[in-house]
Each structure stands twice: as structure tokens, then as C-alpha cells.
User: What shape does this take?
Amino acid sequence: MAHSNEIQELYQTVRRLTMQCQQLRLAVVMSFFLALLISMPFPLALLLVILLWIQESIWRADMARIVFRLQKLQTGASDIPSLAQWKAEKINIALVQAQAMQPKVLFIYMLMFGIEMTLFGMGFWPT
Assistant: This one.
């Protein structure tokens, strides 16, 4: 197979990005408790969650591009751009937005937003 090295490299990249997304989710939960512990201002804590959500969405969009390329390589499609051309392509913002709205991505961040908003509304979160 002509693309076997590229396929292996792409699989390793998907595994690495998957692990990073899992670590990021853990970081979201830990940052929530840290923000409470150090009395981080509410807007800053909310901004932190939003930034982590955007980062995970970007990684998930990158994974979606890689999986799409892997599928094309494995099926032997003839319209596959060269690796250099593919790497030069920019991540489409619509793809990032679509990944951000996936239930598996959205759940933890909406949960954190909800908890933060509830605590802030009840007066338990510093302003």
C-alpha cells in the first residue's frame, strides 16, 4: 500500500488528539474547582470554560479532517490531494462550529456553564 506510512501517522495523530481532548475535559472540571477555591471572578471563570470549549472544538475539527482523509486513503479514492496540499489547507470555521455543537463536546461545557450560572445566581460565586 502506497500510503501505509501516512495512514499510520494519521492514526497516531487521531489517538494523540483524542487523548488531548480527554485531558482538556479533565482540565475543565479541575479549573472549575480551582476557580471556586481561589475565588476567581465569575466572568474570568466563564471565559476560561469558553476558551477550553473552543480549543476542544478546534482539536475535534482537526480530527474530523484526519478521519475524512483516512477514509479516502483506505478506500483508494482517486481525488486525494497530496499530503503537502492537505496540510496547507486551513481548518474551516464551519467545521469547528459543527464540532462545538456535537453532544459529546457540548455536554461537559454546558454542565459547567449551568453550575457556574447557578452558583453565581445564588450568590455563591464572587463577582
User: Anything to note?
Assistant: DSSP finds five helices and no strands in the chain.
